[in-house]
Amino acid sequence: MRFNALSVLRQGLAGNTGWRPHWRKPDPKPEYEMLIIGGGGHGLATAYYLAKNHGLTNIAVLEKGYLGGGSIGRNTTIVRANYFLPGNSEFYSHSLKLWEGLEADLNYNVMHSQRGLINIFHSDGQRDAAARRGNAMLAQGDDAILLGREEVREILPYLDYDQARFPIYGGLYHKRGGTARHDAVAWGYARGADQRGVDLIENCEVTGISVDAGRVTGVTTTRGQIKARKVGIVTAGRTSQVAAMAGLRLPIESHILQAFVTEGLKPCLDHVVTFGMGHFYISQSDKGGLVFGGDLDFYASYAARGNLPGVEQVMEAGMTLMPMIGRAKMLRSWGGIMDMTPDGSPIIDRTPIDGLYLDAGWCYGGFKAVPASGWCMAHLMATDQPHPVARRFRLDRFATGDLLDEEGTGSQHNLH
């Protein structure tokens, strides 16, 4: 079933009674060539690209709940490629290029909106840092424009430009940045993987990983034992728990990141905007709500909910940058479980156990990375070689010291 304008018109005239389910509901088979643990954006993208790029179809995605019910459905939907360090820069640049062709590739509307992203800065030092970052982005082949104060005011007239503590000096404008619909990304990849023969097994929690003589042989689930030659762990905030089933201890902590949305408003915010003197970012959804977030709650937890001090911090930053937000009523909030590495950069690598692969540690960058993460994890599992744009995301960098400390936003285990 392909989506196009004619099919939408026909279904509308027929009362939308002819649509079929997007994916099958198969029972798990006793054995697969490959298993993907985790039915979120990264896991579904991995399965899709294994089938599409490498012609592998004897694959199952195992999800303990429903597809897209984890961190892929609990984020602020921002898509960008404004990274600075080599290693991260080329990876997120690759991801943004995949985003730009994703809807045509999947034949699915993921509501990708390149509305532009503006990082505000508030001092001479921050201006210099923004200029360096912008030049690195241009050198990578992405876009960046350094805006002065009045240029920012022309685009974003509703910000507080003259407060004494954090006056706005300008901003770094990334026109190709924007947002996408998080649920639709999961649904689009699930539909695409299913059409290529991948089994998507919902309500199938992995309770054990079988290892024999240093090699993975399959998993134990709430729906029985499933054998496999290769297994990928793609479970975001639950990565440490799942890896422990195979006897692995990882340099990862799980923290809560809260997000918020206001009541629906008329269009008033055309871009994604971030606050330079506090971790705050905001955009407006297609339904009209202002979607925003900030820092982690700064304590390790597996609970998908946040605390009130975290709420207060985000609201303070929002009111400082954009006083008009105080007139909107907050509709709801939610918490996502973030798997934080010490250097704030991800891991896509083989583990010490043969046939067991790891895609984890996405910290704040998980949603924007979905296409490239799936692309590179699929390449790794299919070829046993790292993809060139993910070659720095090695697990052993925490032992060798070859870190990718993009912003220092990872968890610092020495402080806990």
Describe this protein with a few key phrases.
FAD/NAD(P)-binding domain; 2 domains; eight-stranded mixed beta sheet; alpha/beta; 11 helices; D-Amino Acid Oxidase, Chain A, domain 2; 416 residues; 28% helix
Folded structure, characterized:
The protein folds into two domains: 26-76 and 182-251 and 343-415, FAD/NAD(P)-binding domain (3-Layer(bba) Sandwich); 113-177 and 254-340, 2-Layer Sandwich (D-Amino Acid Oxidase, Chain A, domain 2). It is globular and about 65 Å long. The mean pLDDT is 94. It is built from eleven helices and 18 strands. α2 packs across α10. Helix content is 28%, strand content 25%. The strands form three sheets. Strands 1, 2, 8, 9, 10, 11, 17 and 18 form an eight-stranded mixed β-sheet that branches. Strands 5-6-4-13-14-15-12-16 form an eight-stranded mixed β-sheet. The protein has a two-stranded antiparallel sheet with strand order 3-7. The termini are far apart. A hairpin with a 4-residue loop joins β13 and β14. The protein has helices at 5-13, 41-54, 89-100, 102-106, 124-140, 149-155, 182-195, 239-244, 308-321, 370-383, 397-400, and strands at residues 31-37, 59-62, 78-79, 117-121, 145-148, 170-174, 178-179, 199-201, 206-212, 215-221, 224-233, 253-262, 272-275, 280-284, 290-300, 330-340, 347-350, 356-360. The chain has 416 residues and is of the alpha/beta class.
